[in-house]
Amino acid sequence: SSAASDVYKRPGGLALTVLQGTGPLLGDVMDPVFPNHKQQLSNADSVVFLTDGLLDQRDANGDPYGYRRFHKLLKSQATTEPKEISTAVLAGLAAHSTDDKLRDDQALLVVKWA
Predict the structure, then answer these.
(1) 66: buried, middle or exposed (CB in 10 Å: 19+, 13-18, 0-12)?
(2) H-state helical runs in 1-114
(3) What is the CA radius of gyration of the chain?
(4) Residue 73 contacts by C-beta under 8 Å, 6 or more apart in sequence?
(5) pLDDT reading at 75 higher than 60
(6) DSSP 25
(7) Chain centroid to CA 68: how far?
(8) For residues 55 and 40, what is the distance between their CA atoms, to the nearest angstrom?
(9) Taking residues 62-66, what's their average pLDDT?
(10) pLDDT for residue 14
């Protein structure tokens, strides 16, 4: 499964919205049908796409990084620059995780709407 979160700066401040991925797992169905999701974007909005395997990384106690920590990290960002966002996300995950094994797919993509 996967989820996409968009984080963007607006004149009123930072906003965070989650677009939950739905549909069959990639490769599980011969002719998959995936629903469309729409979100209005403005100039300088950044969108963060990720797979849940990133947020499933565990600490020494076995606790996953999870969406709550991920959202807190995104809200702490003072930038909408994709490279800086991805660097902060990967650093946060690395600081949390003590698990060197890849247990699930892990993908991160940060794009900026221009």
Answers:
(1) middle
(2) 52-55, 66-75, 82-96
(3) 15
(4) 88, 89, 92
(5) yes
(6) P
(7) 11
(8) 26
(9) 91
(10) 60
Beta carbons within 8 Å of 113's beta carbon, 6+ residues apart: 41, 42, 43, 44, 45, 46, 47
Which residue type does 22 have?
T
In the block, residue with structure tokens 């209005």: 40
pLDDT digits (tens, 9 = 90+) for 29-50: 889 888 887 778 888 788 888 8
Q: How many residues does the chain have?
A: 114
Question: Cβ distance 5 to 71 under 8 Å?
Answer: yes
Q: Which amino acid is at 53?
A: G
Burial grade of 71 (CB within 10 A; 0-12, 13-18, 19 or more): middle
pLDDT given for residue 13 in this prediction: 54
Q: Where do we find the tokens 């991160």?
A: 108
Reading the block at residue 54, the tokens are 């990133």
